[in-house]
Amino acid sequence: MPQVRKIRMYDNFVKFLGTAGARFVVAKQLRSSAGTFLRICGKNVLMDPGPGTLVRLAKSRPKIEAEELDAIILTHMHIDHSSDVNVVIDAMTNGGLNKGGTLFATEECLSGENKVVLKYLRGFLEDIVVLKENSEYRLGDMRFRTSLRHQHPAETYGIKFDVDGETVSFLVDTGFFPELARGYADSGILIINTVMLKPHKSPRIKHLSVDDVRRLISEIKPKKVILTHFGMTMLRAKPWKVADELKDELGIDVTAASDGMKLEIRHNS
Predict the structure, then answer these.
(1) CA 185 to CA 136: how far, in whole Å?
(2) Fold exhibited by the domain 13-264
(3) Residue ranges of the chain with pLDDT lower than 50?
């Protein structure tokens, strides 16, 4: 009988349940729009559960049990980052019979006309923590910080995890602005939402292009970069080819995420 390898207490990894970004890739499901699962310092965390996240948890190999989640993080309220938050809360608490888990979310996710977390489900959780700019948070041995506020139509913060002295940063949706690189200067591993191949003509579109990503990587100089959250122009350009070109040009390890990809996090990785 084959031996099953169990997750050790401090196995640390990121699993990309989905890599879709922008409305057309999500609507057509050209890439999965599920969120990102993390095992960090003994905690199971789900970040930005977009459409199909609960299905992807169930179909993951090995299966990821919703009841074993310790926390959910919402970086902002847009539908491709939050649509499955309610069904996941219900599943992780067994319909409220097993109260537990912590939700970390922006104020905009929780209040106002565009709030995304249903009121009746909030009592199922052990705690709800409001995310603020450049702030520190802790759950057991897991520690993370928010970034400076991003330039995006919704209240948005990146997330920076401290993993054995390594900073693992998720630079989520934003337009480019000069302070962005300084805000992520301590990143050893940088996971960056790369929606567009070229900058959009409209200043209203607040997403990063490959030109923006190239500039950020050049300034931050992380040890490892993962591109994800791809829009149509990135898919047409083949993200793995874009990553290879950036790697050759910049001399930095750059990889394009794929649906289901697992990234092991080790110190000096």
Answers:
(1) 17
(2) Metallo-beta-lactamase; Chain A (3.60.15)
(3) 1-9
